[in-house]
Amino acid sequence: MLITTLLFALAAGAPDVDPGVADARKRLSEVLVAADAGKAPCSDLVTPSTRYLINHADLTLGDVKKNAKPFLAVARCAEKEKYFVLEADIAKMLRKADPKNAHPELLARALMGLGDTDTAMTVLGELLAKSPKDPDLNLTQAKGYCKQRQWKKCLDASNKTLALAEKLKNEAEKTAVSARAHKYNARASLHLGDLDTQELSTLLMDLNDGDKESVEQLQNALVPAKAFRLVVEPEYASHVALGVYHLVGKVDRLAPPVRLYVTNIGDDRQLRIEASIAGVTSTTTKTVPLRKGKDLVLDLTPPLLATFDPSTVRATRQANLELKLTIIGADGTEKVALQESHEISLEPRDFLPMSAAVDKEQRVKTYSYLAAWVTPNAKAIDAFLTDAKKNAPGHSFSGEQSATLPQVKALFEALKGKGVSYVMDPNVMSGMGFGQRTRLPTEVLTSTNAQCLEGTLLYASLLEAVGLEPAIVIIPGHAFVAWHAGPKDGVPPTNVYFLETTMTHGAEFDDAIKVAKKEFMQADGNDEATVLFVSELRHKGVTPQPFD
C-alpha cells in the first residue's frame, strides 16, 4: 500500500523535522490508511482536527499525488459531514498535484455546499465542455440542477450519469456512482410526479449506497405526494434569536424560522400556509395559487405577539413552531396536506449572534448585528441625555452643528458621575462560540458595571442620539467607541476620534482619547482592527431592536 511507504520517512528519523510536523504526519497517515481501506465511517475520517493535520504535515505535491485515492475519499467524506471548505482545500491540492486526475467536480460540489450553486454550475459547464463523458462531472451537474429545482434537467443529467457509470470497469466505482445518481434521479422523478420511478430509484439507492438519511427523506415525501399530488419539504432553523428577529429577511445570513418548498405534481390548486411559534408569535397566514408542475419557495417569519414580552426570556429555551398547509379545492373544500410541530431553540433578546456557519467547521463574523444593540430612541437613553445636558456646552447637544469633543466629554463626565464602571472581559470578542450575552444600553444604565462591548454600545447609542456618527471599534479581545469629527472641530472631515470606554470610571477624558487612539493604531498596524460605522450598518438594514 502506497501510504505505508509515504507517511512518512521524514517523521521516522530526520532530526531536523519539527515535532509538530512529525506528529501531524503520523496522525494524517492513520487517517489516510483508514480512508484507503474504505471501512472507517466518515465521522472518524473528517473531524475538526483534519484540516490541522493536512496543513501541518508539510506535504509535497508528490505526497498528495501518491495518495490521491485516500485524499479523494477524505474529500467525499468532508462533503458528507458538511466540511465544505475542507473539501475545497483538498480539491485544490489534488488539482495542483495531478491536474489530469484531479476530480475537478470536488470544487463544484464544495461551492454548492457553501451555497454558491450558480457559480458551481458555471464551473461545471466549462469542465463538461472539455470532458462530456466524465461520470463524476455529470453526477455533480445532476446535483446542481436538483439544488436549482430544475427537475427535468436533473433527471436528464442523472440518467446520463447512470449510462456512463455502466461503462466503468471498476465495479466498486460503478456501484458508488450509480447509487449516487439514483439519489438525484429519485428526487427529480418525485418532483416531476413520476412516483413509480421514484420508488424504484429509492430502492436502488437504499441497496447500493446505504444513504439512509436521503432514503428516509424521499420515502417520507412520497407519502403526501401520493395522497395529495403535492411534494412538501419544510426546512427549519435550529435557533431563533429575539435580538435580531426583526432583521430576518432584511440582512444576510439570518434564516427564517421556516422555509417551505412545495412542488405541485397535481392539478392547479390554491394553498393556505400557516406558521406560528407557540406563545411567542401570532400566526402568519399566506394563501397562494400554485399551478400544475410549478414550484413554490416560501419564507415564513411570523410576527411577535403584541402581548409577548421578550425580556421574560432570560435563557435559551425550547419553543414549538407550528406549521400547517391546507389545500383549498375549487368548491371550497379543504384538505390538510401537512400539519406538524417542530422544536426550535429560542434565544433571549440580549443574545448577540457573533458569527454564522459557513459549514460545519468554518464560521464568518456577523459584527453588523451589533448595530441592533445601538438603541438611541430608548426611553432610558432619552432620560439620561436630559441629565447629561447640564454638562454640555450651552446645556444642549447639537450634533455636528457644534464641536463634537466637548459634547462627548459631557457624556463621559455624566456616565462617570453615575458611577457605572466599565471592565475588560477576556472572553469578549474572543471568537468563542457563535454568540454571547450582551445587555442592551437600557440595562447597562440601570446597573453598576458593564463589560467593554456593552459600554461601547451604550456610548454608540448616546452618540447617535445626539446627532453624531458613532463607530464600533473591534480589536482582538476588546471593543471601544469612535466617531467622525464634525465640521466645527477644526480638523479634516475624514478624522476619526477614539474613546476607551473602560476608562470612564477612573480616568480623565483626554487620557481615554489618547489610550484609545494608541490601541487602534497598534491593532490597525497589525491589520487587526475593524471599524463599523453605525450609519453604514443602518443603510444595510440593521435597525435598532424594537424593544424598550
Explained architecture:
- The chain has 548 residues and is an alpha+beta fold.
- It folds into three domains: 2-207, Tetratricopeptide repeat domain (Serine Threonine Protein Phosphatase 5, Tetratricopeptide repeat), CATH 1.25.40; 230-348, Immunoglobulins (Immunoglobulin-like, Sandwich), CATH 2.60.40.10; 352-539, C8orf32 fold.
- The chain is 44% helix and 19% strand.
- It has helices spanning 2-6, 9-13, 19-37, 42-45, 50-56, 61-66, 68-80, 84-97, 105-113, 117-130, 135-147, 151-165, 171-191, 195-208, 212-228, 379-388, 404-418, 441-445, 452-465, 509-525, 534-539; strands spanning 230-236, 239-241, 258-264, 269-277, 284-290, 295-300, 317-328, 334-347, 351-353, 355-357, 363-365, 421-423, 435-437, 449-451, 470-475, 478-484, 496-499, 530-533.
- The strands form six sheets. It has a five-stranded mixed β-sheet with strand order 2-8-7-4-5, covered by helices on one side. A four-stranded antiparallel β-sheet has the order 17-16-15-18, with helices on both faces.
- The protein is globular, with a radius of gyration of 29 Å.
- The protein starts with a helix and ends in a 9-residue tail after the last helix.
